[in-house]
Amino acid sequence: MLAAVAATAVVAAPDQVAAEAAGLQPQQMFVLAGQSNMAGYGQPLTLAAPTSPRLLAWGAQGWQVASDPLPGPEEKTGVGPGMIFGLQVAKRQPGLTIGLVQCAVGGSPIADWQPGAPQSWYQACLARAKAALSAGGRLAGLLFLQGESDAYTPATASGWLSGFRSMKAAFRRDLPGRWPLLLGQIGALDPTKYRAQQQVRDAQAAAAAEDPTIRLVRTLDLPTDGTHFTVPAYRVIGARFATAWWRWRTAP
């Protein structure tokens, strides 16, 4: 299955893509939040997904053609799940342009995703999302892949669910529209370092079970280096996020 998700679009020359994307705005916008596995640490970049003029990313100068690494708070990232997600969502909707707003920050625990936190990545993400929305488009979903930094001990893991509930309520309050929250479950981590990883995965499953607007995306079967996924795994995760969103979108 890993090899089957290798490419979902025809590769175009960079200058052609830039020309075709000039002046375009997305009709649907997705916020990507969480920590390093959402930002994407996959290498080398030669394995990155192809670009498409129908897939844009929010950067310092506004909307631009999306490519790995997606522009966001972190400067040193690599291949992640966002590109394949966006390409597959665009492929399912031929008439639409898709926009991605990358907010993920490596090493951020759920405490840093609270509106009132001293180091509030929630507030930073909200500001990016609102800036992108002001340039056009409609929020169609929020992807969240986080929890590794809460999986070190039972004590750190015990606060994940309440922290997630608080963050979710704030996003629902502060971002417009009816949209799903696609929740990525953390993968297979180094057991000597992340002693409470199953506790976090159980909390994530509980979060999805209690809210019908959440779709859980499982990753436990995919390869990692003990912390980060491989490039083929990121591709599968992106595809799973896209399938989860499409099933929500087309549900009766």
- The named CATH superfamily: SGNH hydrolase
Write down the Rg: 17 Å
Q: Please tell me the overall pLDDT.
A: 91
* Biggest beta sheet summary: 7 strands, mixed
Named CATH architecture? 3-Layer(aba) Sandwich
Strands of the largest sheet, in order across it? 3-2-4-1-5-6-7
- End-to-end separation in angstroms reads 29 Å
Counting structural domains, the number is: 1
* Count of individual helical segments: 8
**Strand-pairing-aware structural class:** alpha/beta
Q: Report the top-level CATH class.
A: Alpha Beta
- Beta-strand proportion: 5-15%
CATH topology: Rossmann fold
Helix content: 25-40%
Unreliable stretches (pLDDT < 50, length at least 5) are 1-21
Instruction: List the secondary-structure elements in sequence, H or E.
Output: HEHEEHEHEHHEHEH
- What would you call the shape? globular
How would you describe the oligomerization state of the chains in this entry?
Answer: single chain
Can you count the beta strands?
Answer: 7
